[in-house]
Structures are given as C-alpha cells and as structure tokens.
C-alpha cells in the first residue's frame, strides 16, 4: 500500500516522495510519478465509493453485487433504470450501499447529469459499459461501418465522457483510481486474425486513451489502468467463455484494492497483474 500522495511527472522512472522530505527512487521505466505528503488525514477512509457504468447486467452487475458485499459503496450506472429490475432489487437489499444512477455513456448530457447528481467523492471509476456490435466474421469488404461508429461511441468516447465528467469527484479522493475494462482483442502485438474488427479496434483505442490519460493525470495522483476481465460468460462473451461473471468480478474486486500508482498506465489482467497482455 502507498501513502496519500501528490504526483509530479519527471523523466526516467517512477519516483516516490514519502514523508516530510521528498526523495527520489527509480522504480520503473514506464513514466515518472512523485508521491509527496499533503494535508490529508490518511490514506484510506472507512469505505470507498465506486462508480460502475453498465451495471445492470453481466460483469457490471456482478461487480456491483460483489462490491456491496465487500464493504464498498456503489453508484451503479445504467442507461435504462426503469428496466433494471435485477439491479433495483439489489439496491433494495443494500439501500445504504448501492444507488442506481441513470447514466448513458453515449450521451454527453446524460453523463454530465449523472455527475451533477453526485455531490460527494468517487474513489474508483470502473468503465465497464461496452458493446460488441458485429458478429465477428465480417471482412473489411463487407463490414458495416456503423459497427465502428457504435463501438467507438460506447467503448472509447463513453469512457472519455465519464472520466471528464467525474474527474472533480475523483479529485476529492485520497486514492483515486480508474479502471477501463479492455480486452486481449485490443492487443496490437498479439493480433493474428481479422475477427471482430470494430470491437478489437475500439479496445486498442481504449488502451491508447488509458495510457495517454495516465500521463496527464499523474501529477494529480490519479491512477488509471486498462484491465481485461477475462473471457467471461455473458451476452457478449458467449456460453463457451472460460469463466463466469461472478468469477471475473471476484478477481476484479481484489485488483481494485491492490492497484496503485506503480501500475498506472499499464494493461493488466483481471487479477491486477501486469505482463500477461501487451499493447
């Protein structure tokens, strides 16, 4: 665990500034951060607030359920609260820990309104909402370009909208983190087929967004990672996938608690480990 921090970028490695007097410690070649003391009372509060997009089903719902049973407070965002029956039932059984939030990541106005509806801090943003609009076997000669537009609107711009609108809430946190749910299909280095054009290209773009925002927000002490939930049995992942949504969520909850500034800008597996996925 790391102490409460403020960041400053410096070339040539991650640098930590701990205690009353700062000192530099070279930790990695990724990018540099400086961790310094400030006026905070401590590093972690008694309970952290987590915002999840696309929380009405699949991995998002499993995350919401796992988090409220692990003593997190959850803001569960979904684009259609009227039909989020299962999510509403979960909220009813955890009234003090889960708030359903109208949040359509494809809409500037909806995301801004959701942010305005929250007055407190957000410690963790989980950009989970995503789409896989194509069947998967389309070729460049016949794929509907609207699939690309739809994938980018939700998978890339949706994340950017949420980060922008909820940044003031993150800045109130002692330990702000952003987890962008990515995919191994977004790895350029490991690409060896042409399946799922729109989805794969959008996830590669999300990885670049993650990496870029990590550099921008490092001076503010905000950690951001791309993280793969694994191949999960959901409407998107299909019945042949390796793990259940609950298994994925269990690992991600552990990762949420472990991720710190030393991993910012990295592409992680669901356990919060770097190295399995390459850009």
List keywords for this structure.
single chain; 279 residues; alpha/beta; Rossmann fold; seven-stranded parallel β-sheet; two-stranded parallel sheet; 6 helices; 9 strands; disordered N terminus
Radius of gyration: 18 Å
- CATH architecture descriptor of the largest domain: 3-Layer(aba) Sandwich
Give the overall silhouette.
globular
Kindly report the name of the CATH homologous superfamily of the largest domain: NAD(P)-binding Rossmann-like Domain
Count of separate DSSP helical elements:
6
The end-to-end span amounts to 26 Å
Task: Enumerate the spans where pLDDT stays under 50 for 5 or more consecutive residues.
Answer: 1-45
CATH domain fold name of the largest domain: Rossmann fold
Q: Please give the domain count.
A: 2
Alpha-beta content class? alpha/beta
Compact overview of the structure:
This protein is an alpha/beta fold and 279 residues long. The protein has helices at residues 58-68, 85-93, 108-117, 145-170, 197-217, 245-258; strands spanning 49-52, 73-78, 98-102, 124-127, 177-181, 223-227, 232-233, 243-244, 267-268.
Structural write-up:
With 279 residues, the chain is α/β, with parallel strands linked by helices. It has 2 domains: 1-41, no CATH class; 49-268, NAD(P)-binding Rossmann-like Domain (Rossmann fold, 3-Layer(aba) Sandwich). Helices cover 33% and strands 13% of the residues. The protein contains 6 helices and 9 strands; from the N terminus they run E-H-E-H-E-H-E-H-E-H-E-E-E-H-E. The chain has helices at residues 58-68, 85-93, 108-117, 145-170, 197-217, 245-258; strands at residues 49-52, 73-78, 98-102, 124-127, 177-181, 223-227, 232-233, 243-244, 267-268. The strands form 2 sheets. A 7-stranded parallel beta sheet has the order 3-2-1-4-5-6-9, sandwiched between helices. It has a two-stranded parallel ribbon with strand order 7-8. Helix 2 (85-93) links the parallel strand 2 and strand 3 (98-102). Helix 3 (108-117) packs parallel to helix 4 and helix 4 runs parallel beside helix 5.
